[in-house]
Task: structure prediction
Amino acid sequence: MDISIFFEPANLDEITFEANTIGEKIITYSEKGNFPELENTDIVIIGVNDDRNAVNNKGCADAPDFVRKKLYQLYRGDYPIRVTDLGNIQKGNTFEDTYFALTSVVGFLAKKKIVTIIIGGSQDLTYANYCAYRDMEQMVNIVAVDCAFNMGEMDSPVDSGTYLSKIILHQPNFLFNFSNIGYQTYFVEQKGISLMEKMFFDSYRLGDVKKDMEEVEPVVRNADILSFDISAIRHSDAPGNKNASPNGFFGDEACRIARYAGLSDKLTSFGIYEINPSVDINGQTSFLAAEMIWYFINGYYSRKKDYPVGDKSSYTKYRVSIKEGKYEIVFYKSDKSGRWWMEVPYPGSKKSKYERHSMVPCSYNDYKIACTEEMPDRWWQAFQKLG
Result:
């Protein structure tokens, strides 16, 4: 597939390329007819200039080049960078055309085992991102960092406030798990919370997450797709969004989540959406998004490649019997990183479909919970879906 037909060059006119910065090392599509090759590329950055389905946030289509201006000025870490910036996916005649382009590009890159960073645009683009994995018939986990669930009414047209319901209802369905990080209760209807529980999805209130940010890491480690709505960050730290509110994550917490995403061996696409330069103050929100991407890249080049598949002899194994022996939970601790996983049994007839989801990332705290004869929520939810 020639994916170059979907792209227009990034605008680098106002960027100064200084020594040892990320901009000096990134290979960028900045001139027509000079589309980059993808050999020796680990990460691809793509912008998407479409906000037709943004809810109360028109103007976010312009975000990609603003974020680039900030990102390219940041100094790189002490590791080789093999990052290619393919420019911006052109706005299609219809939003479905834009979706088709993004789906095609993400799928093309995933097959090449290249990680994709998406700079939106509005968050409904997450649906197009998901469709790339659907087309590959791959069961996926999606994690959204967001102050709301974005379900809407099940029969509503797709937009940034309803995209999740379109993913849930899509048939055939390839969504194994959805997790929300940082929802704020006053932005979520009770029926939405009930639906999340009924479907054995994960949702974590902002206040609970901020008490212990380390518990976010296993949630992010379980994702194939991470979708970050910039309105999940408080207005004081990210004013460039028409839906920004007084509460939310601090900027450093957002960067921490982004690094967790980069560290995950499983995660293959990371999108930051809803950045609106038209209401930004001194480019602060674009700057923060650039720093988040910096932390994601830093995390990627710090990956331990210790996802426990195949031979597990290099892991410390713990068996915990709970509920008077009714269940046995097997834990694995990585000798490389100290991270934990739980093994969840599943029917042998579903091996090809569920095998990659049977090792559930967890924390030491989940092991301690099991040792008190309590069932860790992460294990139980995965068990219900795998059974």
Observations:
- The chain has a mean pLDDT of 94.
- The longest strand covers residues 175-183.
- DSSP finds 13 helices and 14 strands in the chain.
- The first helix runs from residue 22 to 25.
